[in-house]
Amino acid sequence: MFERPPSVTTLKARWIFPVDGPPLEDAVIAIQGEKILSLETGGGRANLDLGNVAILPGLVNAHTHLDLSGLRGRLPPKKPVTDWLRGVIQRRRSLSPLQAAAEIQAGLAECVRYGTTLVGDISGEGLSWPILAAAPLWSVVFYEILGLSRARARQALASAKDWLEAHRANARCRPGLSPHAPYSVRHSLFRAIAGLARHEKVPVAIHLAESREELELLQHHDGPFVPFLSDLGVWDPDGLAGEEEILRMYADRPNTLWIHTNYLDAGLPISPHGTVIYCPRTHAAFGHAPHPFRRFLDAGIRVALGTDSLASNPDLDVLSEARLVRQLHPDLPGHVLLRMATLAGAEALGYGAETGSLATGKSADLIVLPVDGSSPNDPHDFILSSSARVESVMWRGRWILGPLAP
Ligand SMILES: [Zn+2]
């Protein structure tokens, strides 16, 4: 008996944005089973004419913390950043695992509602794994690793190894490691995690050069991080690694995500294997100096967008992040910005072969947005200079949101 191949569905839209090529007007995308079969322009016929809409790849949120989803609007960004971090830690400690799971579920639902089909989630104790492993989107769960003192570093490494051992990649969810930040991870732990990630071939996410206070700590062993770490009982200046040292440890890693890098010294190079993750609205909420992402783009370094968590962001909408960047940098080409919201994140998270662009053989992950009747010079304006909301979401060839979803 031969199995009958899955049937082909064709969708027509006024604009289709493949991302790895120029936008296509009056275009048809053909989908067979879970995969994209073809893309054609020129007004062909389709099973379903969606009319005046744009179709683009599902969005990629390269950096969030779903377990902080209960903090929306409750912890306004503060200076020094350590005062804000105290609030986050207090909240984390007050949550039971069940409450944390409920917050992760709520954050996940919000991601899907805004058209995210791939998420990189930093997860305390890896709690989001069972939820994301069953969710209607692709994901990387980055197990969060903290340990500045010698004793905590040893314990954290053992826990990370155990967690990786117990959580192997499945069809939609893959493990990653997140040695949290230079102020919370011992140099020997950074080094050990680099070795573990290399051995296990998993992606790594590290918060780096996020605040001026962090630089003050690393350069002078001074500033508000000293009382902050002392109050937590973990202050150990001998354990601190320098930024350059950390960058070097992970330079040969293919999937290292450098989160924020707001204040990274221009003389410190990011390896071309790595990706800078820019979280525009969180960056703006903390009132940081302008983000240096264009310096990285100019140097050929991949830059992808993230929302960061609801502790510092109003929602988990990647499109709103891109629209803020459009306002701040109107001269940045639309195709570059759209790539930052899709394919760049997919490549950073190790899913570049599966998703992030609309191409033959890739997963049929797409979103549908209404477009207005105007005729802008740059069709990217339909997406990036508009306030249109995502109407429908398809993941692996199935509608998961919108009027066509079951
Ligand atoms: Zn973060």
Gist?
Helices cover 32% and strands 23% of the residues. The chain is α/β, with parallel strands linked by helices.
Which key phrases capture this entry?
14 helices; 32% helix; eight-stranded mixed sheet; alpha/beta; four-stranded parallel sheet; binds zinc ion; 406 residues
Q: How confident is the prediction overall: mean pLDDT?
A: 95
Order of H and E elements: EEEEEEHHEHEHEHEHHHEEHHEHHHEHEE
User: By helix and strand content, what is the structural category?
Assistant: alpha/beta
Strand content: 15-25%
Q: How many strands appear in the DSSP assignment?
A: 16
Distance between the termini: 30 Å
Q: What profile does the largest beta sheet have?
A: 8 strands, mixed
Number of helices: 14
Low-confidence stretches: none
Query: Helix coverage percent of residues?
Result: 25-40%
Ligand set: zinc ion
Shape descriptor: globular
Radius of gyration: 21 Å
